[in-house]
Amino acid sequence: MARTHISGFPRIGAQRELKFAQESFWRGETGESELRELARQLRARHWRLQQDAGLDFITVGDFAYYDQMLTLSALLGALPERFGFDAGRLSLAQYYELARGNAAQPAMEMTKWFDTNYHYLVPELSAHTSFDGGVEWLFDELDEALALNVPVKPVLIGPITYLWLSKSHVPGFDRLSLLPKLVNRYSRILEKLKQRGIEWVQLDEPALCADLPAAWLEAFSAVYDVLGTSEVKVLLATCFDTAAEHAQRVARLPIAGVHLDLVRAPQQLDVWRAALPSHAVLSAGVIDGRNIWRADLRAIVESLRELHAEWGDRLWIAPSCSLLHVPISLAAENKLAADLKSWLAFATEKLDEVSTLALALRDSAAAEPALAAADLALDARRHSSAVVNALVQKRVAAVSDAMAQRHSPFADRNRLQREALDLPLLPTTTIGSFPQTASIRQARAAYKRGELRALDYLQRMRAEIEFAVRRQEALGLDVLVHGEAERNDMVEYFGEQLWGYAFTENGWVQSYGSRCVKPPIIYGDVYRPEPITVDTTRYAQSLTPRVMKGMLTGPVTMLQWSFVRDDQPRSATALQLALAIRDEVVDLEKAGIRIIQIDEPAFREGLPLRKSDWAAYLDWATRVFRISAAGVGDRTQIHTHMCYSEFNDILPSIAAMDADVITIETSRSAMELLDGFGEFAYPNEIGPGVYDIHSPRVPGADAMLRLLERACEVIPAERLWVNPDCGLKTRGWPETEAALTNMVRAAKALRAKLATRQPELAH
Ligand code: GLN
Ligand code: ZN
């Protein structure tokens, strides 16, 4: 009989209880004991859901007060030395200081968890890291779970993934040298689990699905040779991609079972089936842990039948990965269209899907009603007129290579644009948004509650736009923006005005710490019924003789920050998005807008885990961007914007996007990024961010001037723009004005310097 389990459940709470409890603790309104009590209730509730669904195990160890990597660092006793904390006696207040920084120390670095939108805290290791033990929270949680008298399966991030994702500030330090100490610590943890009567422990090693170097693979074998012989059975869990090439290696290890992501990488099943020894457990991750669609249960059952006949109770059934990446429950959704809602499964519903699969393998008659209900929903989805739009299909079929190409090459466009725009050397601009003030947020909330009529809301937003335009004029910026007052979120704003998009009321997913996002759902062919930003942008342009930059979100970012269809490739959805944005770009041009920015902050994060899959992604991603941009004439200048990721390894693709100007985050790395752009000889214009917008600190004009001078060393001044790192919506007006005053001053100072050196440049 197949056994059922999950890799992890979202910890934030259906009403985001953990978020609110954390924030109240941070404000000092509640104490540690209240926060701990709330956490205990959440865990109990989530275990109860797993029990109610009839899963064979409840999963422990997926809870974290902020982040699971940080919690693991605290358990291992591997905290950054610079904080001076005793890991064994870490208080919750100190735990949060690690995550958020304190007066003396900046926070630990945060970065994305594989190709998800979840951010973890990067362990900081050094030769002194001893792993000699830390907080015992895991064991307390385990005791809570054991009190329920059901089989409990703890889950921990495995040592190789932990080390792989960690960092050392000592140049040249080999993290693998820490492995013996680390394995020791894991062994002791497993021993303690055994003492509590635990039979199985799950060790998550998604790093196996990344491109691990040979030395790391050897280390992997060495580690599990040791951990596999501990008295607890180890379920080695992979996810997010295939691990097929490691099947032989894993099969030689004393490991009791393997979990595979068969949603992302179903093709790996046969390899593993053949490789694994006859006592091993195979946990089939067949329910999509990364997306919100109801599964085709009947098809999955059929695909598992033979395997089940062969493997019996050595076959386990699970979601593909932790359910951390999907919202908690459909029960909280009252406004979704009934048909769409019936096509979805959030975390709670996925628990039932997992147990239905096991039931169907054991007793098909008993599972029939649940299977039939899934069939019905799936069938409705397949034939729904809300999904397929003939108009879109026709346009997609007619897309030609010419549509992905501007009329003339950059050099020719550049000449025409210089004539048309008549901008000074080193033009100054911003990335799009200005402060989202309390008055803007209040107006939007009142409008959403129906207390403000649409026209009154429009009036309020226009007043905000005029305010932003006047301030930019006073600051002396060269290319203005309308300030994005009317946008709550750069994806939601556009999605709300496109067919094929739906929005949940409570579909929150943890992004990091207390921060949650509510990704929209793309369920059908994407189509733009009418212009979205044209009136607003035209209005903004009418206020000023200066150039007003139109502001759009690009197709890749729209895709990346939404839950997307699973009934067509991502690239197909991206193409539909590109066509919708292309229409908007063309309409903006017709309305007299001469510069249009298509933001792609999520361009880099769409990269697949495996380098071997990069080229295919970059190929369609650059193409859909070009299709969104290339509907305009040569004189219209297309900008794009990217931020907060490593760009140096994808520079040729960024160049292939062929935006006339790219504005990009650079100031936090003191312009290191620019070296990449210099070496690669990036051909078009660039605005390297000259100050970090994530802090209220106002940088001096001198500091910005120095950054600009460095930039001039690698990029000719004629191709440089001057702008902040990113949008200013999270900032207040006083610091924004102060910083931009300095930025304009820095640009002017450099223009003056250059004019004395190269008089022909100054005009
Ligand atoms: N135009 C957007 C803004 O200024 C860009 C945001 C982003 O890069 N994430 O807010
Ligand atoms: Zn940005």
Automatic annotation (TrEMBL):
5-methyltetrahydropteroyltri-L-glutamate binds at R16, E17, L18, K19, K112, R515, C516, W561, E605. Gene3D superfamilies: 3.20.20.210. Binds 1 zinc ion per subunit. Pathway: Amino-acid biosynthesis; L-methionine biosynthesis via de novo pathway; L-methionine from L-homocysteine (MetE route): step 1/1. The active site is at H694. Zn(2+) binds at H641, C643, E665, C726. It catalyses: 5-methyltetrahydropteroyltri-L-glutamate + L-homocysteine = tetrahydropteroyltri-L-glutamate + L-methionine. Residues 426-748 form the Cobalamin-independent methionine synthase MetE C-terminal/archaeal domain. L-methionine binds at I431, G432, S433, E484, D599. This is 5-methyltetrahydropteroyltriglutamate--homocysteine methyltransferase.
